[in-house]
Amino acid sequence: VQLQAFGGGLVQPGGSLRLSCAASRSFFSVNDMGWYRQAPGKQREVVARITSRGITNYTDSVKGRFIISRDNARRTVFLQMNSLKPEDTAVYYCMVVSSTGAMHWGQGTLVTVSS
């Protein structure tokens, strides 16, 4: 498995979850890392991305609530999700851009926000 994601689950509205995703050592290096999500019946959308220099970008609906970060030494990307809403319910996928420019995807982790 090249990308392993952890941290999904069931949480009540207003709660928090932290996702993590580690890229295997088969990646010599990684450039951008990020999180995408796909809700039932909808297309996959970007949630947040972070460059190798730590520059971040968020989709408008999560700004001020989610924080993306990375640990370059461990090839790991994190997504701290706060003030979760039912509309955040989706399968979350981590993504890395390798040194060749190719995008690689993790297997997805389900986040369910419900009371």
Concise account of the structure shown:
This protein is an all-beta fold and 115 residues long. Helix content is 0%, strand content 53%. Strands 2, 4, 5, 6, 9, 10 and 11 form a 7-stranded mixed sheet that branches.
Outline the structure in words.
A hairpin with a 6-residue loop joins β4 and β5 (45-50). The chain is built from no helices and eleven strands. The strands form two sheets. Strands 2, 4, 5, 6, 9, 10 and 11 form a seven-stranded mixed β-sheet that branches. Strands 1-3-8-7 form a four-stranded antiparallel β-sheet, with no helix packed on it. It has 115 residues and is an all-beta fold. The model has no long low-confidence stretch (mean pLDDT 93). The protein has strands at residues 3-6, 9-11, 17-23, 30-38, 45-50, 56-58, 66-71, 76-81, 90-98, 103-105, 109-113.
Note the total helix count. 0
From the spread of the alpha carbons, the general shape counts as globular
Mean pLDDT reading: 93
End-to-end distance = 33 Å
Helix content: under 10%
What structural class do the secondary elements suggest? mainly beta
Order of helices and strands: EEEEEEEEEEE
**Overall number of strands:** 11
Q: How can the largest sheet be summarized?
A: 7 strands, mixed
Low-confidence stretches at least 5 residues in length (pLDDT < 50)?
none
DSSP strand (E) fraction?
over 45%
